[in-house]
Amino acid sequence: MEKVRVIGAGLAGSEAALYLAKNGITVDLYEMRPNVETGAHKTSDLAEFVCSNSLGSTDITSASGLLKEEMKRLGGTLINIAFEKCVPSGKSLSVDRCGFSREVTKLISENEYINLIREEVIEIPNDDVLTIISTGPLTSPKMCEFVKKMTREENFHFFDAIAPIVEKESIDFNKAFYASRWQKGDADFINCPMQKEEYENFYNILTTAEKIELKDFEAKFFEGCLPVEVLASRGVDTLRYGPMKPVGLRDERYPDRKFYAVVQLRQDDKKASLYNLVGFQTNLKWGEQKRLIESIPGLENAKIARYGVMHANSFINSPKILKPTLQTQNNEKIFFAGQITGVEGYNESMATGLLAGINAKRYLKGEELLELQDISMLGALTQYITFKEHKNFQPVNSNWGIVKEAELDRKTRKNKELKNAYLAKRSLEYIDLIAK
Ligand SMILES: Cc1cc2nc3c(=O)[nH]c(=O)nc-3n(C[C@H](O)[C@H](O)[C@H](O)COP(=O)(O)OP(=O)(O)OC[C@H]3O[C@@H](n4cnc5c(N)ncnc54)[C@H](O)[C@@H]3O)c2cc1C
């Protein structure tokens, strides 16, 4: 009987399992929650978004938008659920996190091809069953030990941080206002504007606040998800040119009013009762977070629904361990998928889960495995994480820098929009050929 074992029912594992089931292949899907917790997941549902509920742009001329479109065309399931469960957020895709993971859990629990087994896996049995390891950035310590032994490579650890969430009801809308930057799309974000003095007070609290000590590992952060206090330590204006930039934001009640800095809040749940502070991932002590948030105009009485926290992030040294098919170099029956491969992000985790599912199916059916070219975003990601010459391999998001250059005329080369439109078209034509 054709069977695949998938370990970890997060974004990657759920996607892989659903793809295999759709193709009539039986899956034993292992998930350790709720018996063993990760420290970041809040529910026992599958495919839970642990932090932000944003999946980024839907525009196919953006790197993240293109990856979404590729997943749709390659037969992904989770991306379609994400669109079904979206909440308003301008031109990007943000998701009702509970609705999303509940739906994935339902689809999997009711699927006749998937046996959902709520157990922590601490080693892979020495049998012949094709296995996908998708235990994520918070792989349980015992499984980490097993993976380390199996790959004969040290896992790397570094830190990511989560942003706090506040209750909308507690926001003072005499000060805060709804708007999207440059009035693009609907006015979905809540904005808390600051004048110079207010920013200086806020900055002073932020840079002197106490942090939680990081014990076990060296504190290495992923550049794309730096804690707000680390950004602030780079200079007094770094935040004003980053997540707190005021440009393009207007309070319609006072159209002439100028701001020195703005804290943006993004809708976090379907009911629009919770909002997260954009770019405010943090490792400050909780009391200090409260003090900091209360110094923001409009949030003086904010009720904090969830505090920001730091977490470890484990990933394997994929350039030494994996092939672009996501199989291990030593054992073609073992695949890795999701963030543990060194891709970073929700879309990227789902996409590699999908590719592992596709290739596991192809393997079982005796078909040629997909080694996607770097003219597609998913191909660029898998080529990047398995590129042998990396000196210091670090996790990677989808981005145009990893996509193969095209020979373009001067006008297109110099115009970012034209160039990305060309690269997106080239990718989707290629993906369509594969998906046929
Ligand atoms: C705290 C945190 C915040 C993040 N914030 C963002 C963000 O804002 N935006 C973004 O794009 N990305 C974010 N990421 C990164 C990443 O995109 C997500 O973690 C994503 O969920 C990764 O998908 P995955 O399937 O690889 O892992 P997960 O979704 O974490 O799934 C792995 C699953 O495996 C299970 N598991 C672990 N070990 C075992 C075991 N031994 N046996 C059985 N089951 C096991 C876990 O319980 C989990 O359900 C964040 C990551 C973390 C940890």
Note the main attributes of this structure.
single chain; 436 residues; Elongation Factor Tu (Ef-tu), domain 3; alpha/beta; binds flavin-adenine dinucleotide; 13 helices; 16% strand; 5-stranded parallel sheet; FAD/NAD(P)-binding domain; 2 domains; 6-stranded antiparallel sheet
Please tell me about this protein's structure:
32% of the residues lie in helices and 16% in strands. By secondary structure, it is an alpha/beta fold. The chain has helices at 11-22, 63-73, 78-84, 97-109, 141-151, 196-208, 228-232, 286-294, 318-321, 346-364, 377-385, 410-414, 416-435; strands spanning 3-7, 26-30, 54-57, 86-87, 92-95, 114-117, 130-133, 156-161, 165-167, 177-179, 189-194, 261-267, 274-277, 304-306, 310-315, 334-336. The strands form 4 sheets. It has a 6-stranded antiparallel sheet. It has a 5-stranded parallel sheet with strand order 6-2-1-7-16, covered by helices on one side. The two termini are 27 Å apart. The chain has 2 domains: 3-155 and 316-435, FAD/NAD(P)-binding domain; 165-311, Elongation Factor Tu (Ef-tu), domain 3 (Beta Barrel), CATH 2.40.30. α1 runs parallel beside α10 (346-364), α2 (63-73) runs parallel beside α10 and α2 (63-73) runs parallel beside α13. It binds flavin-adenine dinucleotide (FAD). Residues 7-13, 30-33, 38, 40-41, 50-52, 120-121, 134-140, 143, 160, 162, 311, 338-340, 345-346, 349 line the site of flavin-adenine dinucleotide (FAD).
Q: Secondary-structure map with pairings?
A:
Elements: E1 3-7, H1 11-22, E2 26-30, E3 54-57, H2 63-73, H3 78-84, E4 86-87, E5 92-95, H4 97-109, E6 114-117, E7 130-133, H5 141-151, E8 156-161, E9 165-167, E10 177-179, E11 189-194, H6 196-208, H7 228-232, E12 261-267, E13 274-277, H8 286-294, E14 304-306, E15 310-315, H9 318-321, E16 334-336, H10 346-364, H11 377-385, H12 410-414, H13 416-435
Parallel strand pairs: 1-2, 1-7, 2-6, 7-16
Antiparallel strand pairs: 3-5, 4-5, 8-15, 9-13, 9-14, 10-11, 11-12, 12-13
Helix pairs in contact: 1-10, 2-10, 2-13
The chain binds flavin-adenine dinucleotide (FAD).
